[in-house]
Write a structure and sequence with these properties.
Length: 514
């Protein structure tokens, strides 16, 4: 093919000077050409994909081929190749695809084809002219970029007229530019996890990596090289089978694509809703979803193909399947296994059994809205359905030793019978205390405390304290403890207020306790 008549010797001089790390300005002075010409030559040489040392070893005609003539660009052969470039851009986003693969396919289908070096040069020039070179680095199904828009939307309280600002979550698959948008009340980790789950369901699959822009709700500590991911977000990635890979906080290149998407969201979604009023988050998101579908259907100027079509053709098949259920946020607590073989979870104020051999050890409790998992040295040792009634004991019988199985016999009758061994007033008081609790288990533990006072005080004093306390409406361990500590049970009681035990539903006759 014809070529631009350039001085190959000057090109070789240029290569030598570049190998010597000379600047383009000094090279221009040395070989006697304009600096812009040197800049153009260097750019074309670099786009060949070869090093300067490799280029210097090429024959003159091979170097000449790197500078195709205008006539070559105007011919039918170039027009044919030019028509293939948009499809090649998409194919390059498929995992494992290279320009060499594309060239082999091209030369098999076209007898009058360009050489590989010419093919690469023409393709690079076309890509550069379309300003899409950065997109070629993104592999289909590899990443999902996520961020929050800087500008907020708002909803209005219909009754008070109060305006509430809401956040806007944006997710984009860089290979196809397919975009997801939704509004949320805030940027908390709960809201972020929910938005990511909704985004993945919208996509119908999971990419290899989710890339948050060092969001505070995803990243515990920002770092240029190794950001620290918070446990919740890391667990979410593990659940969906992908990695969490934050963008480098100091690298604007990592942010450019999602920030560009946010800018388009302002133009195509925000602006369209600028004169609308929304009274609920669901109504706002419903409108966003409609505009989002239209946005993804617009043809891109660079490829002439819509985001949705690119997603379906090049990216969707590379996403991994979604789990059947959405991820639930995990919360973490530390606890010590109590002597009874239970751990206490402050959320809900409930107790969960642990195998008795772990009694006395520190463990980690991981819990969601539905489940409680207990870990010792990163090994799971117990799993329970989460209880939603405060003060309950959730037990797996195999966790308990023969000694601890004793506690499974606890009941109202059990404690009233034990209290009766101290005295009838104590039995009445314990029965009344248990009946006043929203859950019996709470009363059991407090009753145990009252009964155990017989080891600290004479039984007669415990009985007298319970008799005195029965005049109050509320029963508690603390009342009995205070009476005994302050010796109030020893004070003489006026005859007129002496408590007389009358028939009572909490009272059994002595025959019941033989």
């Amino acid at each position: 093919m014809a070529a631009i008549q350039i001085d190959i010797m000057k090109v070789k001089q240029l290569l030598l000077l570049k190998i010597q790390r000379k600047s383009n300005r000094k090279i221009a002075q040395a070989i006697g050409v304009d600096r812009n010409t040197v800049n153009g030559y260097v750019k074309k040489l670099q786009s060949s994909g070869r090093s300067f040392d490799e280029l210097l070893k090429l024959e003159e005609h091979e170097l000449q081929n790197l500078f195709p003539s205008k006539e070559a660009l105007d011919g039918d052969r170039y027009a044919t190749l030019h028509g293939l470039f948009p499809g090649y851009v998409n194919e390059l986003k498929s995992p494992g695809c290279t320009r060499l693969h594309l060239w082999h396919k091209y030369q098999q289908e076209h007898i009058d084809h360009y050489s590989y070096s010419q093919f690469c040069q023409l393709f690079s020039d076309w890509v550069e002219s379309k300003n899409i070179s950065g997109k070629l680095t993104h592999i289909a199904g590899e990443k999902l970029f996520i961020d929050y828009a800087g500008k907020k939307l708002h909803i209005v309280n219909k009754e008070t007229g109060e305006i509430r600002e809401v956040e806007v979550f944006v997710g984009i698959l860089p290979a196809s530019s397919y975009t997801y948008v939704e509004a949320s009340y805030d940027q908390t980790r709960e809201s972020l996890v929910k938005s990511v789950g909704n985004c993945l369901r919208f996509l119908g699959g999971v990419p290899q990596a989710i890339v948050p822009d060092n969001l505070k709700s995803a990243v515990t500590k920002s770092s240029k090289y190794e950001p620290v991911i918070n446990k919740t977000f890391r667990d979410m990635g593990h659940y969906y089978g992908c990695v969490i890979n934050p963008t480098r906080s100091y690298s604007p290149q990592d942010k450019a694509l999602v920030e560009g998407a946010v800018k388009l969201v302002y133009q195509r979604i925000y602006y369209e809703m600028s004169k609308m009023t929304f009274f609920s988050l669901s109504d706002l998101n419903k409108q966003i979803r409609g505009l989002l579908e239209r946005y993804n259907s617009y043809k891109l100027q660079t490829t002439g193909i819509s985001r949705f079509k690119q997603f379906v053709e090049i990216e969707k098949q590379h996403l991994s399947p979604l789990p059947a259920e959405a991820y639930q946020i995990k919360y973490y607590n530390r606890a010590k296994v109590q002597k009874m073989g239970y751990v206490y979870l402050s959320e809900g104020k409930n107790y969960y059994s642990v195998p008795y051999r772990y009694i006395g050890n520190d463990v980690e409790i991981q819990h969601t809205i539905d489940t409680v998992e207990i870990y010792y040295k990163k090994q799971r040792i117990a799993t329970h359905a989460k209880s939603h009634r405060g003060g309950s004991y959730t037990t797996i019988k195999d966790h308990l030793s023969s000694t601890h199985l004793y506690y499974q016999s606890w009941s109202r009758e059990f404690f009233v019978k034990m209290a009766a061994a101290i005295g009838m007033n104590t039995a009445v008081y314990v029965g009344k205390l248990i009946d006043q609790q929203p859950y019996p288990e709470i009363g059991f533990k407090r009753s145990q405390g009252i009964i155990s006072m017989k080891h600290q005080y004479p039984k007669e004093r415990v009985e007298a304290a319970c008799k005195k306390a029965l005049q109050y409406d509320i029963c508690s361990f603390k009342i009995i403890d205070n009476i005994l500590k302050n010796n109030a049970d020893l004070e003489p009681q006026p005859q007129q207020i002496e408590h007389e035990i009358k028939p009572h539903s909490n009272l059994r006759n002595t025959g019941n306790y033989k």
